[in-house]
C-alpha cells in the first residue's frame, strides 16, 4: 500500500497513516485503513465529520457492529484501531478531547446478540419509487435520485459544483477531501436519464433559481439560508421524505436510547452497491465507483451475489 492510497483523508489522518506505514506491518496499515473507511461512512450517515465525532457516536457504532453479527474480537480490533487514531490526534492537539475517553469495552466479552435486521439494509426498486412519489418538491427529488443513481456519500453530494457535472456524458466528478484543498484527486460517477431530466428542470427550468444564493453559489445543492447545502440537511431531507411513507421502521434502539432507522442516507449507498453486485458488476469497478480505498470494504456486498446464485441453483436443480 502506497501513500497515495490514503491521499483523500484530511491531513492529520494522512500523517497518522504515514506513521503507521513507517512503524508497523502492512497488515496493520491495511486494517487501520479499512476501519477508518467504515468509520467515515458511519459518521457521514449521521451527519458527523470524523474529526468531530463524539463518544456517543462511537458507542453507537460499536453497538451496530455487534448487532450486525461481528464477532467480539473483530469489534474490539476495530475499537483498538480507532482508539489509536484518536489518541494520535489528541496527543497533537488536533482535537479538543479524545472521544474514546470513558469508552467501556468490557461488555464485548459476552456473546453477540444478533438482530433480525442483521443484514446490510437496502431499498428494492419499488420502495425507491415509493420514496420518489413522496417527494413534495423538485429539490427533494433531486437529492434522492442523486444518492440512488450515483451511490455517493452525503458529504460528497454537498460538495458538488455545477461545473463538476458533464451533462452531455451524464457523469459527475466527485472531489475527494484532499482535492477540495487543491489537488487533482477525484473519481467519476455516472447517472441515467431519470436524473438527467430532474437536473435539467433544476438547472434550466428555474428550480434552483428560486433560492436566495442561486446567482452567487457554484454548488449544485443549496438552501434558503446557505449557498451550500450542509450534510445534515441532506440527511434531514431523506428522513422527511421517508416519514411520509410507511416504509420507515426503527430497527433497534442503541444503548443511549437513540432509535436506529432502517432507511437513512447511507441506505441509498448500500442500495447502489447491492443492486449492482446482484446484477454482476465486477467488484473492482464497484470499488472505484464507491470511492473505497480498500477493496475489503467493498467485498461485504458479494454475499448478495452468493444469495442469488444459491436461489438460482435451487430453481434450476433437477426435481
UniProtKB/TrEMBL annotation:
Gene Ontology biological-process entries: DNA integration; DNA recombination
Segment forming the signal sequence: none
InterPro entries (alphabetical): CB, DNA_brk_join_enz, Integrase-like_cat_sf, Integrase_catalytic, Integrase_recombinase_N, Tyrosine_recombinase_XerCD
Keyword Transport found: no
Taxon lineage: Archaea, Methanobacteriati, Methanobacteriota, Stenosarchaea group, Halobacteria
Organism: Natrarchaeobaculum aegyptiacum
Residue ranges of every copy of the Core-binding (CB) domain listed in the record: 7-90
Cross-referenced PANTHER family: INTEGRASE_RECOMBINASE PROTEIN MJ0367-RELATED, PHAGE INTEGRASE-RELATED
Keyword line: DNA integration, DNA recombination, DNA-binding
Domain Tyr recombinase: 118-314
Name by which UniProt lists this protein: Integrase
The keyword DNA-binding appears for this protein: yes
Gene Ontology molecular function, alphabetical: DNA binding
Matching SUPFAM superfamilies: DNA breaking-rejoining enzymes
Gene3D superfamilies: 1.10.150.130, Intergrase catalytic core
CDD domains xref list: DNA_BRE_C (cd00397)
